[in-house]
């Protein structure tokens, strides 16, 4: 039906070629998809048929145009990391030559539901959801626990990705966590027609359920690459969901498990200036190992962010750190050295040329992308653990974990022991913004801390203005095309 396919465009199923297609099948099922019923029949005996589907979900995270447009800001999860970093105001659009992010930087796109910036993330995340639902349905449905280990691993990854997608939708398309406010339509299979908006509480119930199931299903599995969600990545997503709900007591055991048992190592001082360009980094939990064979170039996160890549940042629209945030980093903190003023790119535009760069470090030199994408780092969970401890009254633990993060970044962490109450919470929030600048996490921290942000003087647009976390300009509108095609949304 038109309404149903409006929400989701699934990935082509590699399983089709593995099981064979008869002429009768092609005539009776003239669609681009193998139905869940058919694939479930095949997958019952051979769960490996889901390998292509699950890989296809991960491919959506980095491929261009997965948000349904040909725009050069439509390139998967890292594109929405840029959207959110700009909306949080920690990232400055340092030029208006090409205009790809001008509506976001002006905060006008987010209040005009006919603007494609509202449609692109909506379509992308619901496409992830459709693809995950296809896998889940093929393995027996939402309540099933596959009998084979292989089936459980595929089910766990699919549920984790569905939880991931609904979490980001809930963050982007609401002004904060209000359990009774209707925010999103929920789909847990590929057959359901257009649905009304469900309340926030129902959306988060599904997120928590999916990610909890994923943690259990993926327990003990050793993945083959960091592009795959394992137990610890699922725990990280679940911790973020609980934090967004204000349930910080549930955050603590998850972040503690990641830190103590995940096998990830905090980025040290040398690695903090090491390029953030390879999934082999011991602190990376989730990321994509990109090669030139994948064909990414102009339309990519590196193209939009990095002046050493031949694309927009290099030729006119650099991305800089907010000057107020930059000035809050003390001299001697290694993370201040991640940024430099570069001649020709603006006198007040500290660029992240020592945080994000390819090995060659030649201006405009990287043409086809071979540097990797980072989605999640273990540093996030030292900070989130500290935040959760502070908000649940355990200030000693909060100080301990904050100091553990800072030991490789500053010469003296003793000041942390003197912080308490709101001052401690404020410092954790500040360090979260500094540590994770450019990684798409400041927006999540702004929402859950109910922060007020003030733009620094180097913003080309709205400089010096302040915004509350629930300002309507800081979240996206349900796109006009969704309203037109879904009779259950007014």
From TrEMBL:
Residue span(s) of domain RagB/SusD: 353-488
One cellular-component annotation, GO: cell outer membrane
Domain SusD-like N-terminal, first and last residues per copy: 108-239
Coiled-coil regions listed in the entry: none
Descriptive protein name: Membrane protein
Cell compartments where the protein resides: Cell outer membrane
Origin organism lineage: Bacteria, Pseudomonadati, Bacteroidota, Flavobacteriia, Flavobacteriales
Taxonomic superkingdom: Bacteria
InterPro entries in alphabetical order: SusD-like_N, SusD_RagB_dom, TPR-like_helical_dom_sf
Species this chain originates from: Salinimicrobium marinum
Gene3D superfamilies associated with the record: 1.25.40.390
Family note: Belongs to the SusD family.
Keyword terms: Cell outer membrane, Membrane, Signal
